[in-house]
């Protein structure tokens, strides 16, 4: 696919060139015709020149047609993707996987509710995350508040640097993200304007590539250069200026303690490093983890669940000796092979390719074993959830994308209808974060010492008491000592895998969605092929017909499912069994139990639609085995007699 | 206990009365002595009068002493409680169950982090909550954002009424909760001042009882009457005025969309009622549930985890036909018997007493079966976690505590060192919440109709698009219709059990904590007797001595525990086994596995300290059975040979 699109790009470029050359010829020949007419040349001469002009125009039209074809081919893929997305999103919203929040009050952009099936998927994903990372690695999980005082986010750099560039409609005051407007302009031009020259097209593509690196001034200059105006009103736009993306608030009643809703969960771990290190017996390496809400006051959210104002993050901070980043369990993931997209391939315009993880580490493509270990574990996590491994790649950050302190950084990107989406960031952030929070640095301590010596006392704000206390000279001693120790003093490095849970879930929805024709062939039915691990409901219970005996059996089965800890949905409506199957296939329920006798029932598999007969008393244990992964559906097919029923097979 | 304290109260009252009567006698006799002396009476007369005065003074001193004794007895209980709390809290903070947030930046009052063991307890409590309520009742769980636009909280009444009364130090501007200052003043007087009269004491007690009902004016008048000043500076205080407890913020970049961090999770369910009702097949009753963070910007937080600025709520909204509040599963909880504290007992000054739930419902003490069902389920939930059933009571709200729309309301209160704490509220809120959010009421619709008819168009803000759209007359039709339907139209009633997870966890910590002497008898060792369900770590693995063979076995066992999904802690330090047991008893780890041979190991029970020998290959399954509740420790003692080891029994 990547090389096909490269061909297309090459074709587009040569056609654009041919088109503009032809235009020059057409213009020249046009002048010839006009001059001949003006100088009263002979009829023959004039008609020959006109004929030549027509021939040139035909040639130009033919080039235009070919260019149009190439562009609508890539555009057609785009349209298919849009149509696919529309049918996934329609299904998701109709079945309440997620819906815009506060809909009855006309909603708020960038805020979504997870309805019952979406909430269940999310809690399954989080439970598996705990199992796969926290329990497996004995991580120290913590749970810190969202409300964060300014001083913490000042130290971390968020107060000063967590910004996006914004422009305002100069008349209405409506706000836009400056880079989005420039991006939309460039894409629109490239996709719809046949007349732009090869050079112009190359320039626009360069702008798109450099978008993230532009300063406010550079963005402003481009917006001015291209004459970009406010999309809704066509009014002129202000110069771009930074807008801080944190939700600001005030802590306590005084109005004097500014705070923010945390933009990430990591800071809660960093500020507790010393206690956690002590809890771990003062030994490195160890990892802490946190699952929680994070907040970004996006200027103009779009792309549904992918860019929202409040989201669930799951973050790991693995603290390690900067001089020893080996990992004892690396061997367990070393032989995994998957799509990697190192810096070099990106720069040379190649596409991602499959690599074996330990080769990538030993060749130095991945900076160290610990980083490699987490890349491998993330791969296992995502594919276990049901992410298609052919549409998952690990992309290394380019030098200009990485913060100066970072040693290496890889994003797990998942391809969906919006393109390749960063869902997990795995960064070796070196010692930056811990250094930022070094408690009472030497400078502050020395200032306090000076004040104590001159005034005899110093005010010290103790926020836990909500007031200032006065420390007098005789209460404390602050001194600068030189200690000679036979100990290496260092700040640990942090390796941080950070998971955007909502993005992973959205991509999982797209990867799990398919349609198949109904039995009558008159409509397409939607299916989510969730693996048991993430399926929102594990099975359904249907009495085949409305009848007291069957309903009694259904309730007995329901009770045994609850006792086994299996979520189910019981549907005793008189709707046709085929319709009831279709309804729950659309929720991604893996197994359906149809009560069609009082001793035994059928169990149907969602994807194969095959059925087996199972005794009522065994139902819960069969379902539990498949849900826990102890048995596969193939095992069940082998163990139990298969069942065919016309009525039940829609 | 309650009746003992009633006796004490009666004794205190009669002593105060006797004391002031005696004072009158002393004063009178003093005058007699003075008059005799002034009138140069005979020596005998004077000395008889002085003797009588001395006798009266002795009698007064004796009464004072008895009063002092009674007061310090109740105060002594208070001091014991404080000492107990201090040792629980010290252990909790030292072992990182929870710690003040942002400690390295001197903390923020009312914000706490759960460290590793606390976070594990919390996630076990939440997982059990999901199992016990959501799964068992097939509830519709949703997950809504914390950031909430003003319009929603305006409708719910929070913008106008979610306030506490505050006073300011008129010189420094420091803020205090007005009712707290008055409460502290009254308690201090009652506990420490012997001279106040019976009438004064009764007045102060009345003030304490009425505290929640005082208006701003009444509170202000009492503060003035008692001459209460700012605790830190003794400066005068401002008049009390309402302070809204919601954290305010602004949504989006314009600064024109005010929002708040939600003060409860319930509103997210109410605004989605229509969709959830549809999801449930348009059938009542059904319940929705939500677990999530809620925020209250407390004026001056105190009492540790019990009054914080950010906390986890788990809320259920059970929607039911107002004319049929029966519950099909009520029979399952009907015979439960526990402490109930109905309105009548509170008003008549009696204490809570044990009642059988179905009697309480049939006598109309509990308003209806559904409310009764949830009271029973909450009782089962809390006691399964390890809450002491003798220190758990269900207290009915007094008429003046309940909102006017509520039909009935019961709080699950748990007794801890701070007194009886409301941990779960179970309210029949009638139709109030759904009515508050009725989308576009008739009035708004009719106004829009009028505007369309006069101007031909109307502006309509669509927040999901982040802009206004203009609706023209020909696009919509708004009409008022009268429909005659054979349907009863009603707004469902809401029965709301609402759980303060942090409060439950704190009370659980206190109820689980005990100390026992070390083997040497030289110190008290701390133990948390958590049941397996909530224990933060299920077992520990200790090689008895540092030795490669034992460590190999320990690692094999660790691996099998991970595979079985059991959390464990491995400790391969050379510390004495007794010390290692003590360390993990303090974390509430139920079982300890000591590797003292290569084929079999010992498993030790935390509370009985008894040990059994188990083959290495069986260890994980034995631990898992006990943790899942399939076996008890008594079963294990019966099945496996017991083990005695001097070294391992500290």
Automatic annotation (TrEMBL), chains A, B:
GO terms for cellular component: mitochondrion. Its EC number is 6.1.1.14. It comes from the Eukaryota. Residues 207-517 form the Aminoacyl-transfer RNA synthetases class-II family profile domain. The keyword Nuclease does not apply. It is found in: Cytoplasm. This is glycine--tRNA ligase. It comes from Dillenia turbinata.
């Amino acid at each position: 696919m990547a090389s096909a699109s490269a061909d297309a790009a090459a074709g587009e470029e040569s056609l654009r060139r041919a088109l503009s050359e032809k235009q020059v010829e057409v213009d020249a020949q046009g002048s010839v015709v006009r001059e001949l007419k003006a100088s009263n040349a002979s009829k023959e001469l004039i008609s020959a020149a006109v004929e030549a002009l027509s021939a040139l125009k035909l040639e130009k039209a033919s080039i235009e047609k070919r260019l149009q074809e190439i562009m609508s081919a890539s555009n057609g893929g785009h349209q298919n993707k849009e149509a696919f997305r529309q049918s996934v999103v329609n299904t998701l919203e109709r079945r309440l996987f997620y819906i815009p929040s506060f809909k009855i009050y006309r909603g708020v952009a960038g805020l979504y509710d997870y309805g019952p099936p979406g909430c269940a998927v999310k809690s399954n994903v989080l439970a598996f995350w705990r199992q796969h990372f926290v329990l497996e690695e004995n991580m120290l999980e913590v749970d810190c508040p969202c409300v964060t005082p300014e001083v913490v986010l000042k130290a971390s750099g968020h107060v000063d640097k967590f910004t996006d560039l914004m422009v305002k409609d100069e008349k209405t005051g409506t706000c836009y993200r400056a880079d989005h407007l420039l991006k939309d302009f460039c894409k629109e031009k490239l996709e719809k304007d046949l007349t732009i020259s090869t050079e112009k097209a190359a320039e626009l593509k360069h702008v798109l590539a450099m978008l993230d690196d532009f300063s406010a001034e550079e963005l402003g200059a481009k917006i001015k250069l291209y004459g970009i105006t406010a999309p809704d009103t066509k009014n002129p736009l202000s110069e771009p200026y930074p807008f801080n993306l944190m939700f600001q608030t005030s802590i306590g009643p005084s109005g004097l303690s500014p705070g923010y809703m945390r933009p990430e969960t990591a800071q809660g771990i960093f500020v507790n490093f010393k206690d956690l290190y002590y809890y771990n017996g003062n030994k490195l390496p160890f990892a802490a983890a946190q699952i929680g809400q994070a907040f970004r006051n996006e200027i103009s959210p779009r792309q549904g669940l992918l860019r929202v104002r409040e989201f669930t993050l799951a973050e790991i901070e693995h603290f390690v000796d900067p001089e020893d980043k080996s990992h004892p369990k690396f061997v367990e993931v070393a032989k995994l092979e998957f799509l990697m997209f190192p810096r070099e391939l990106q720069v040379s315009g190649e596409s991602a390719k499959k690599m074996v993880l330990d080769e990538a580490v030993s060749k130095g493509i991945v900076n160290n074993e610990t980083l490699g270990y987490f890349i491998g574990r993330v791969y296992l996590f995502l594919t276990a959830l049901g992410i298609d491994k052919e549409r998952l790649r690990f992309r290394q950050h380019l030098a200009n994308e990485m913060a100066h302190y970072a040693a290496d950084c890889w994003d797990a990107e998942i391809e969906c209808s919006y393109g390749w989406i960063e869902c997990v960031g795995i960064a070796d952030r070196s010692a930056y974060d811990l250094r930022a929070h070094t408690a009472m640095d030497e400078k502050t301590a020395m200032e306090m010492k000076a004040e104590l010596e001159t005034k005899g006392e110093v005010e010290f704000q103790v926020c836990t008491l909500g007031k200032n206390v006065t420390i007098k000279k005789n209460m404390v001693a602050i001194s600068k000592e030189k200690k000679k120790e036979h100990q290496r003093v260092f700040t640990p490095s942090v390796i941080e895998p950070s998971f955007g849970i909502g993005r992973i879930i959205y991509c999982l929805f797209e990867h799990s969605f398919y349609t198949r024709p109904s039995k009558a062939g008159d409509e397409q039915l939607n299916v989510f092929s969730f693996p048991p691990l993430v399926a929102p409901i594990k099975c359904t219970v249907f009495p085949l017909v409305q009848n007291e005996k069957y309903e009694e059996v259904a309730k007995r089965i329901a009770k045994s499912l609850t006792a086994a800890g299996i979520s189910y949905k019981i549907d005793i409506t008189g709707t046709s069994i085929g319709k009831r199957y279709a309804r729950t296939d659309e929720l991604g329920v893996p197994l359906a139990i149809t009560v069609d006798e009082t001793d035994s029932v059928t169990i149907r598999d969602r994807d194969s639609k095959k059925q087996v007969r199972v005794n009522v008393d065994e139902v819960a244990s069969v379902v539990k085995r498949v849900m826990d992964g102890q048995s596969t559906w193939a095992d069940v097919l082998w163990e139990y007699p298969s069942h065919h029923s016309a009525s039940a097979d829609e």
